[in-house]
Batch of 3 targets.
Target 1
Amino acid sequence: MSAIRFNTILAVESSCDETAVAVCSGGKILSNMIASQHVHAVWGGVVPEIAAREHLRALMPTFLEALKQSKLTIDQINAFAYTNEPGLVGCLLVGQCFCEALSVAYDKPLVSVNHTRAHVFSNFIDEPYPDFPFLCMSVSGGHTQIILTESPHTFTVVGQTVDDAAGEAFDKIGKMIGLPYPAGKSVDELAQTGNPDAFRFPHPKVAGFDFSFSGLKTAVLYFLQDQSKRQPQFIQQYRADICASVRKVIIDILMNTFARAQQRYPEATIGICGGVGANTLLRREFEQFARDRGKYPFMPPAQYCTDNAAMVATMAYWQYARPSCPS
Ligand code: KG4
Ligand code: ZN
C-alpha cells in the first residue's frame, strides 16, 4: 500500500520476448507499443540471452514511439512503472534499469508490478471493470494461476500449475507437429477444422485447484512417436485433428479446475487473461460458463491477452492513482 498518487504513467514490460511501452493517463491508454522478438522462432523457444539483448536494442525506439503516440512530453509523465517478476532475469533487468534511469533523470517516482498480476489488470484497461473480489485465471506461456484479487493490493493465488504452463503445453506440442514457436495461435487456428474427439489424451489428477500439463505433453509425444512408426505421414495427415484434440483437453483441464475454484468463491466476479486467454475455444467456453452462472465474462481483447505494457500501466494506475484505491 502507498500514499503515493500520480495520474499519468509510462510503463515498460520486458519480462520475456516482447519489448513493450505504454502510456496511461487517468486510467485511459494513450499509447501502447509492442516490439515482438521473432528471432527466437529458429530456436523453437525463447533464448534468454538473446531476448535480453533484443530488449536492449528495441527498448529506446519503442519508448520514443510510445511517448510520441501519447502526444505527451516526458515532463507530463508523473511516474514510471516496470515489471519486476516473474520473468527472465536478464530481460527484467533491462526494463528495470531503463525505468530507474528515467526516474532518476526526471526526478519522478518509480513503481514495480508483478507480471501475472498485471495480466489480471488487463481486464481493467477498458470498461466495464470487474468488481472486487475478482477471481481470474491467468494463463500464459510462463505461468498458469487462478488469482483472487480482493483489492489492487490484495492477491491470493488460489491454484497454479505444478509443472508446465498451459501456453508452454501448446508451444511444446505444436513444436512436435512442426509448428513454429510460439505455436499456441497456430494450434488454435488449425483446430478450427479438426475433430476434437479424434484422439483422447489423459486428464491429470491434481489436488485442490492446481494444474499439471507435463503428463499431457509426454502422452502426446509417445502417441505421435507410436503412430508415426506405423504410419510415417500420420502427423501431416491428422494435424488438424491432433490440434483440435489437444486444444480440447487443455481447455477442459483449465475450465474444470476454474469451475471448482469458482464454487469456492461464488460471490466473486470472474475473468481470464494471459496469452492463452486469446484461445478461441477457451473464450467460448468461458463465456458460456459465465452466462450459465448469471455473471459477466471478463476477458481482455486478444491484443491485451499476450504480453503488453498497457496492463502494467493500468495496474500501476489502479494501485497508485485511482481515487478510490486504498492508500
Ligand atoms: O502472456 P504471454 O504473451 O506471455 C507470457 O507471459 O508467457 O503468453 C504467450 C503464450 C504462448 O505460449 C502462446 O503460444 C500462447 O500464449 N497463445 C495462445 C494463443 N495465443 C497465444 N495459446 C493458445 N491459443 C491462442 N490463440
Ligand atoms: Zn505474460
Target 2
Amino acid sequence: MKTSLFNDTIEDIRRAARIIAEGGLIAFPTETVYGLGADAFNGEAVSKVYKAKGRPSDNPMIVHISSKDDLYKLAEKVTPDMEKLMDALWPGPMTMIVPAKSSIPKVTTGGLSTVGVRFPSDPVAQQLIEFSGTAIAAPSANLSGKPSPTTAQHVIKDMDGRIDGIIVSHNCQVGIESTVIDMTGDTPMILRPGKYTRANFEKVLGKEVDLDPTLNKGPEEFDRPADFKPKAPGMKYKHYSPDADMIIFEGDMDKVEKSIAERKQQLESQGKKVRVIEFGSDEEAARDLFAQLRQADDDGVDMILARGLRSEGLGFSVMNRMLKSAGFNIEKVK
Ligand code: TXA
Ligand code: MG
C-alpha cells in the first residue's frame, strides 16, 4: 500500500479527512502522541487499524471527538460527574470511559459495553475530526508493543506502507498518552495515568478518585497471578518496549548516580553499547521518554540505564511507562 504524506494545511487536512470518511486510515498528531485514525462507526475501517498495528482485537480504541456535545452521541448515559470533568478538562489529554451507545460497532469497543471518549486539544486533530464528519477511533500510531510515536518521523518509520496517509506535523507536547478515567462505577477510577493526575480529578469532582491497584506494579507484587488484572486491556505488562534491555535505578539520588556510572563502565568494558537517559523535569521526561527509547534503538544500543522518577503527580505517570518499557527491571540502590 502506498502511504501519502499530508501537510498540516487546511487543504491537506481536508483531503486526509475525506479518506477517513471513505473508510481509510490516517495517522495524525494530538497533544499527547500521534494517533492512527479510522471512522469509529465503520467496523470494517476499525478492523484495519488492528491489522496495521498488529494489535490484539480485544484491546478497545479511544474514540476522538471535536466538540463536547459529541459525547452525547457516543455515551448511553452522561452523569453530572462526567459533565464536570469534560467542562474542566476538555479539550485536553483525558479519556473518559462511559457506557457505550449500541450504535458503536463492537470492534471499536473491543467487545465491551463501555467506550473511551476523548476531545483532544490539538488543532490539527480537531480539524481532522471535524472535517471527517464522524468520530475517529484512534489508538497510538505505533506498531503494537513499541513506544508510542511523538514525532511524524516515528510514525513514518512504523506505518509507512501499512496505512493510507500520515499528517506530517509538529512534535507532540505532552509526550505520553492521555489519562484514562473509568466513570462507569460508583467511584471514578484512573486506569492509565497521564498528564492529568489524581489530584486534578479530585479537585474538579470534589470527591475521592481511585487508582487501578495494578498501576506501577508488576505481576510479581500480587499474591496470585489472577490478582493482576489491569482494567484497561492495553495496560497489560509488557509494553512500550525498546529492543534494548533497560534497567531503572531507584533510591537515594547520589547513590543512584554512582551506581549508574559504575554499571555503565562495567557494561562498556564488556563491549556493550550503553545509553543513560536523564531528564531535567517530569514534564521533560513525559515529552522525551518515548523519543529517547526509539533513538536508543536506532543507535543500536544494548542497554538503557535510567533513574527512577518520583512517585507522585506527572512523575508517577511517566514512571508507569518507564516500568513497562523496562519490563519491571528495577534495581534498588542502598
Ligand atoms: O493520548 C491518547 O490517549 C492516544 C491519542 C492518540 O489520543 N491514544 C491512545 O490509544 O493512547 P491506545 O489505544 O494506544 O490506548 C488506549 C487505552 C488502552 O490501554 C485501552 O485498553 C484503554 O485505553 N481503553 C480504551 N477503551 C477502554 C474501555 N472501554 N475500557 C477500559 N479501557 C479502555
Ligand atoms: Mg498505545
Target 3
Amino acid sequence: MQNRTEIRDLMPASAASLFARLADGRVHSGAQLADALGISRQAVWKQTGALREMGLDIKARAGRGYQLARPVERLDESLVNRLVKSAAVSATVVGAVNSTNQSLLEARAGHGRALLAETQLAGRGRRGRSWVSPPGSGLYVSLAWEFDCGLTRLAPLSLVVGLAAAQCLRPLSGAPASVKWPNDLFIGQAKFGGCLVEISGAAEGPCRAVVGIGINLFSNRAMGSVEQAWTTLEDHGNNPGRNRLAAALLDGLASALEQFEADGFAPFHAEWDQYDALAGLPVRVIAGQKVTLRGTAAGIDKHGQLLVRCDGQIKTVAGGEVSVRVD
Ligand code: BTN
C-alpha cells in the first residue's frame, strides 16, 4: 500500500503559473502575463525575481517582455506515471522542495514512492555538499524503497544506483555515460550527475532507503558556482525529454533495486567494467583533506570496494567518507 503523505510544494502558485506560461520559450509581455495569471504587473515582476532566484534563466527583452533562455519541457505527473512501467513505482511531481530526498525521508514515504521536483532549494549532495538544482535544466528525482535484507547487505547499494542510472541513460540519450566510483555520473572526465543514497534500518532486518539522482540536462548560469569540472547530457547526446527520462530512470532504478535484493551485488559487479570511468587512470584517494593513497584504478571487488594498484600491490578502498580524484 502506497504511503501518500502530503509533500508540501514550496513554489508559490503564481510563480508556478508564470513558469508554465514562460515554458514555451517565447517572449511574453508583462501585461499579457498579468492578464493571463490574474495578478498585477508588479506581481509578475516579483514572481519573475523569485523564479530567477531559484536559478531559472529569464531574460528581460527591452520593451517586449520576458523570455526563457530556452524552452522547457515541464514535468508532468500524469505523463510520468503513464510512462513508468514498474507497478511498484508511483511518482509525485512538485515545483519546489528543499530536497527530494529529504522530503521523502520526512514523509516516511513507502515502498516505490517517487518524488520529482522542478527545482530544489537546498539540494543535497554526497559528503555534506549541496547540489545546484535550477528549474527546468536538470532532473531531480528520488525513490523510496524498502528492503528486508538488512543494512549489512546494502553496502554496495550506492554503486547499484549509479550503474542503473548510467545503463538507462546510455541508450536513451546516446551519451557515453559512465560511473566514477562510487556513483558519480561522468562523461569523459566531467561530471553530469550524482546519486545520493540515504539508508536507515536494522543490521539484519527491514530497512528503508531513499535513492536520489540529480542530472544536468542543459547548461544554466547557476551551474557557474559548481567547483568541479561539469558537463550536461545535452552536450554529448540527444535530448530524450525530461518526462521520458524521468520515467525511464525510475523504471531502471526499480528493476535494479529488485534485482539487487534478489541476487545481491554479483550481477552488477559483472557489468561494472563497461561503465567504469576510472579504469586504468592514475588516481589519488582523499580522506578529509589528506591524500591517503596514490595509484592506478583497477576496477572494483565483489563487495563494491575500489581497487587501486600501488607499488605492485592491489589495495582496497571502501566507500563512505573518501573521495577519489584523477591525477
Ligand atoms: C553528489 O554527487 O554529490 C550527489 C548528488 C545527488 C543529487 C540528487 S538530486 C535528487 C536528490 N535530492 C537531493 O537533495 N539530492 C539528490
